[in-house]
Amino acid sequence: MPSNPKPTPVIRDVGSMGIDLVELETFVAVAQLGSFSLAAEQLHVSQPTITGRVQRLESALGTKLLVRTTRRVDTTAQGAALLADATAALSGLRRSVLRLREQARLASRRVVVASTPMLSATKLPPIIRDYGQRYTDVQVKLLDLRYAEALAAVAAGNADMAVLAFEGKDMRFQVQPLNTEDMVLVVPATHALAGLKSVTLEQIAPWPLLVIEQYEPMLARVAEEVKRSGVSMAASTIVGNLNTMLGMLDAGLGGTLLPRSIARGRGTSHAVIEIAGSKLVRTFSLVRARKAKLGTAAQSFIRFLRQAMTEGRP
């Protein structure tokens, strides 16, 4: 039978080998400068401290690393081998430290915001633009995601916050309402209802509606209210993508319900109609992970966002 393979040796950290990193750095300084005194000046310690560190390193390794000549300090064969390895290792460690510090610096100046397609396409871009003009050293990244995906990004720490019309309760998150808007009916200019200033839900019911999937709970409430009036609703089309819904609206395939500020931007090819007799609203909220600690840039963006949304911008 084949013999059992030898176990892979355990690579222990430098400290567990009885070697201090500062002793290794001191040895490299002495070997490169060829002088204990010059190494002491470079490391801002006394010469006896330098000597003591090198002696402790030699004792831990059980070999002589440096020898003094009449003019300078030279490495032994073992010292030269260690110098090559230690120089490469310390250089790599310094690069890693600098890279991590730079990443941390950039992360502290970056804000990641998750939002649903409608808000990502309408409300948030002007706010992000205005924020960037005021805080030029902060980068804001906007993630255009579906409702559940936006919440998942916040929960996983891939986004600092989400801005959306939050539904229900979830103990993972802190939810702060930003603003509430009335819903209005938007129909093509050629629609039979286009000439009206206001309509009731009963008047809307016979006509097909195009509804983004995150508005399904609201559509269910509308259907229930209409049903109590003895009216049946026409079949609605649930659309997962905002652009698809707007394309279908432009093609005259139905009307849609939109928050007032978003409906205002639909242009003259559409009619925006008030909904009378029923209070249909959409509350947009800031959602953060309950246990998350936000950096100064994220906190700054939240203050700016709350002010902008409260003032009704854009």
Report on this model:
- With 314 residues, this protein is an alpha/beta fold.
- It has 3 domains: 15-105, Winged helix-like DNA-binding domain superfamily/Winged helix DNA-binding domain (Arc Repressor Mutant, subunit A, Orthogonal Bundle); 110-178 and 283-310, 3-Layer(aba) Sandwich (D-Maltodextrin-Binding Protein, domain 2); 181-281, D-Maltodextrin-Binding Protein, domain 2 (3-Layer(aba) Sandwich), CATH 3.40.190.
- The chain is built from 12 helices and 12 strands.
- The chain has helices spanning 21-33, 36-43, 47-61, 77-108, 117-121, 124-134, 147-155, 201-204, 216-228, 242-250, 260-263, 296-310, and strands spanning 66-68, 73-75, 110-115, 139-144, 161-164, 173-188, 198-199, 209-212, 237-239, 255-259, 270-275, 281-289.
- Strand 1 and strand 2 form a beta hairpin.
- It starts with 20 loop residues before the first helix and ends with a helix.
- Mean pLDDT is 87; it is low at 7-12.
